[in-house]
DNA sequence: CCTTGACCTTGCCCTATGGGCAAGGTTTTA
DNA sequence: TAAAACCTTGCCCATAGGGCAAGGTCAAGG
């Protein structure tokens, strides 16, 4: 009999994560023993594996739930999946660009720090930060 | 007299953010009017500006607080600042690398999706996700 | 049989940075 | 003087769980 701890260990998740997925509707509530223990069947293992995979691709629990809901209703989730993957791909491009811009800004700040050492110029708190021109506020998405 | 809304507008922040910074100890609690309104002096403006700049560099409120605490105790925060910038720089390199790896994985999933369309192979939920080999779990830091 | 340790249950607080709303008081403007 | 615009505090929301508490349950060993 698969308890929550055992199925968690088998799928590489924590028991807490498994319970969370149940609470969020990603997996069906399993049967319970008389004393209230969750008892999973082997059928639940690949679903949890799928969740892990999808999470590794950057999908949120909400998005994964939407996919699984479609599938449970007998519909093809693949169109949704490709849409989501495309969105995340675009998002990742965005974030990489933002991080690269931020890296440039940070490097400029660092260079300025080394240069300003010993020059002893004054600033409200620290010229290293205050002297930095932030080009475009990296909008997180 | 600078109310919270006015100083927020002047610094490009929201009133809520300004109150949050006060609650978290980044700025000193301002005087209050008899009716309880916060009344800021112009001295608070550049501090809030500093917070904005530091945030734009990716520093957390906690880190910014540490910098400001040092400065308020009359010590030079610049060593801490350079440390933090170096840490964030390394962190950003890491995250860029992770995102690039994830992008590669996502692109492979997408390519597989296009290729598998019409091939009609079966999977638990969607072969697009299940067929993807996740190379290294992108460890978020 | 009993104990001990490992497991399970629910529930609550915590993370970071605010956004949004509610209920109520104050100030400013028309 | 009345309405609009502002302020106050407090609470809930978001992500994806981690950690802890209090208490119930199960399996192995003595």
UniProtKB/TrEMBL annotation, chains A, B:
<dbReference type="InterPro" id="IPR015358">
    <property type="entry name" value="Tscrpt_reg_MerR_DNA-bd"/>
</dbReference>
<dbReference type="InterPro" id="IPR009061">
    <property type="entry name" value="DNA-bd_dom_put_sf"/>
</dbReference>
<dbReference type="InterPro" id="IPR047057">
    <property type="entry name" value="MerR_fam"/>
</dbReference>
<dbReference type="InterPro" id="IPR000551">
    <property type="entry name" value="MerR-type_HTH_dom"/>
</dbReference>
<feature type="coiled-coil region">
    <location>
        <begin position="89"/>
        <end position="119"/>
    </location>
</feature>
<keyword id="KW-0238">DNA-binding</keyword>
<dbReference type="Pfam" id="PF00376">
    <property type="entry name" value="MerR"/>
</dbReference>
<keyword id="KW-0804">Transcription</keyword>
<feature type="domain" description="HTH merR-type">
    <location>
        <begin position="1"/>
        <end position="70"/>
    </location>
</feature>
<dbReference type="Pfam" id="PF09278">
    <property type="entry name" value="MerR-DNA-bind"/>
</dbReference>
<keyword id="KW-0175">Coiled coil</keyword>
<keyword id="KW-0805">Transcription regulation</keyword>
<protein>
    <submittedName>
        <fullName>Heavy metal-responsive transcriptional regulator</fullName>
    </submittedName>
</protein>
């Amino acid at each position: 009999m698969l308890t929550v701890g055992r199925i968690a260990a088998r799928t590489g998740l924590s028991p807490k994560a498994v319970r969370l997925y149940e609470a969020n509707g990603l997996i069906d509530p399993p049967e319970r023993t008389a004393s209230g223990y969750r008892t999973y069947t082997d059928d639940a293992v690949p679903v949890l594996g799928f969740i892990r995979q999808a999470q590794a691709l950057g999908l949120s629990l909400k998005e994964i739930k939407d996919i699984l809901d479609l599938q449970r209703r007998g519909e093809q989730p693949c169109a949704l999946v490709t849409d989501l993957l495309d969105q995340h791909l675009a998002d990742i491009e965005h974030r990489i660009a933002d991080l690269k811009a931020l890296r440039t800004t940070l490097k400029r700040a660092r260079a300025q720090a080394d240069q300003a050492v010993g020059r002893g110029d004054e600033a409200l708190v620290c010229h290293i930060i205050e002297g930095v021109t932030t080009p475009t506020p990296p909008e997180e998405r």
